[in-house]
Amino acid sequence: MAVWSAPGKVFLFGEHAVVYGKPGIAMAIKPRVYVTVRKTRHPPRVKSPYLEKCFELMGVNGSVYIHSQLPSSSGLGSSAAVTVATLSAINDEYGLGHTKSDIASMAHSVEKSVQKGRASATDTYVSTFGGVLLIQGDIKRRLPPEDFHLVIGNTMVSHSTARMVEQVSKFRATDPDIVNPILDAIEAVTMRSLHVFQDQRALGRYMDINHELLEALGVGHPALTRLVTAARAAGAYGAKITGAGGGGSMVALCPKRSKSKIAGAIEGCDGRAIITTIDNEGARKE
Ligand code: MEV
């Protein structure tokens, strides 16, 4: 039996734009998914398409049990965490000898095939390695780990990443002269943020701008607007959609002393708050 876990993630900058080769900055967060894989001669049929693909790719059969601290379909990378932890556990249980880099790229191919479309490598890469990463296509750079205090607000409005990515792609096909400059502006905000990474007030301002640009891309939702506004009013340095939008979650960068107040403001607007910080480990054996 092998038990592995992998963390969820938030996008601090650049979601959607990364799908078009722009840079994005994502950070692994504390809540994790735990996966147990066991060799069995007659494994029960695996129901999730992600798990099915993981076993198919590894060329083995087995039973799998999942325990998750991450809400699914909430923009926090739970499907990537499940995929990374499952591949790692299969690799361990069957002694297949894959490296962490192999796991990250296999997890990306699982996500692409299940989501049947464009999926950046961000979620799977961050979940595998942990930390804060700047990702642009094949370039992945680890940024110095920052002790950011984050409050995540889950709207509890479930969304489909594949559908939101598709929606942006259609918008871009019909109105490239509107959408391309928005993607360029998201890229500019992401790159500028690298210059102020130690100045959380300035970073928060860039997160606010990134949020407005995501709204302009059409991936906002009234429930997200409510939580973002509440977090800012309660003292966040900045707040934005995180992940695909259209529901799902927002993230607020907070002064340490205000995180409980900000979490309370989110709960007061019918959101589920998660107070969290960086995870520096990525996938690990339990
Ligand atoms: C989803 O967490 C983020 C998107 O940019 C899609 C992707 O990166 O695959 C919307």
Write the layout of secondary structure elements.
Elements: E1 2-13, E2 24-38, H1 49-58, E3 63-68, H2 78-93, H3 100-115, H4 122-129, E4 132-136, E5 139-143, E6 149-154, H5 161-174, H6 176-193, H7 200-217, H8 222-233, E7 238-242, E8 249-254, H9 259-267, E9 272-276, E10 284-285
Antiparallel strand pairs: 1-2, 1-10, 2-3, 2-4, 4-5, 6-8, 6-9, 7-8
Helix pairs in contact: 1-2, 1-3, 2-3, 2-4, 3-4, 5-6, 6-7, 8-9
The structure holds (R)-mevalonate (MEV).
Please provide a written account of the structure.
By secondary structure, the chain is of the alpha+beta class. It folds into two domains: 2-145, Ribosomal Protein S5, domain 2, CATH 3.30.230.10; 149-276, GHMP kinase, C-terminal domain (Alpha-Beta Plaits, 2-Layer Sandwich). Helix content is 42%, strand content 23%. The chain contains nine helices and ten strands. It has helices at residues 49-58, 78-93, 100-115, 122-129, 161-174, 176-193, 200-217, 222-233, 259-267; strands at residues 2-13, 24-38, 63-68, 132-136, 139-143, 149-154, 238-242, 249-254, 272-276, 284-285. The strands form two sheets. Strands 1, 2, 3, 4, 5 and 10 form a six-stranded antiparallel beta sheet that branches. It has a four-stranded antiparallel beta sheet with strand order 7-8-6-9. A hairpin with a 2-residue loop joins strand 4 (132-136) and strand 5 (139-143). The longest helix is centred in the middle third of the chain and has 18 residues, at 176-193. (R)-mevalonate is lined by residues 15-16, 18-19, 75, 119-120, 122-123, 161, 165, 243-244. It comes from Methanogenium organophilum. Its EC number is 2.7.1.36. InterPro entries: GalKase_N (IPR019539), GHMP_kinase_C_dom (IPR013750), GHMP_kinase_C_sf (IPR036554), GHMP_kinase_N_dom (IPR006204), GHMP_knse_ATP-bd_CS (IPR006203), HddA/FKP (IPR001174), Mev_gal_kin (IPR006205), Mevalonate_kinase_arc (IPR022937).
